[in-house]
Design a protein that fits this description.
Length: about 60
């Protein structure tokens, strides 16, 4: 499942979920990243964040 920024840019793909975070991988980066659920605007076929790409990079 894709993770999209507020601008609609693909950030990465979901690799897991827990009670407080969406776990994802970003293309070209082998590390696992954790995005707080508070940053998720909505989820369905994709996970849409309410943060811009720049804002996401500051919390990773």
């Amino acid at each position: 499942m894709a993770v999209l920024t507020a601008e609609g840019q693909v950030l990465g793909s979901v690799t897991g979920l827990d009670r407080r975070y969406v776990q994802c991988r970003i293309a070209g980066d082998p590390r696992q990243h954790f995005i707080p659920l508070a940053a998720v605007a909505r989820a369905g076929e994709v996970v849409r964040l309410h943060l811009s790409h720049r804002e996401v990079l500051t919390i990773l």
